[in-house]
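#random but structural
TW: two for the price of one
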Amino acid sequence: MFHSDLPYTKDEVMKRIENLGDPDIIGSGGFGTVYKLVMGDGSMFAVKRIGKQGMGSERLFERELEILGSFKHRNLVNLRGYCTAPLANLLIYDYLPGGSLDENLHGMKHLPWVC
């Protein structure tokens, strides 16, 4: 199942998503990996891939859809679409430049040591 309010066809979006790899990773954690998705016209989105590893991952996906699909607030990233697939569920968000929430709250984790 695929649903989105993006100005692209399902095939355009899925083709770009299928080509995402390690260089496109902008974040990762216990609940999935987030990729930067760049469309042909230069528009950018964030795609969160939640692997299907039991009922916990399904429930996480459903809760995120419920919460972000029902709330609109300037401090919440906009959920633009989702896809359920055999191996993973995908959530598509607006891309917000400037780093992750963790980096903004706690500072950059990968600063070089200065001697």
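TW: number two ↓
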Amino acid sequence: MNPSFFAVFLTTVLIASITPGPSMLLALNHGISFGWRRSLATAWGNVCATGLQCLVSFAGLGFILAQAA
């Protein structure tokens, strides 16, 4: 892989990772309101939802690739 392309890729991944989304803001809010122990359910729900989204997107991509010539 081209080093300059890899640097751009790493920068993009870093920015996308540190940008708070709705689920991150919810986890932060629950952590502040209820403490870290009770907010673990929110974090676990976020992990499960992300995994489910990955599975659905992989299944869709697999279907598209299977239909391609």
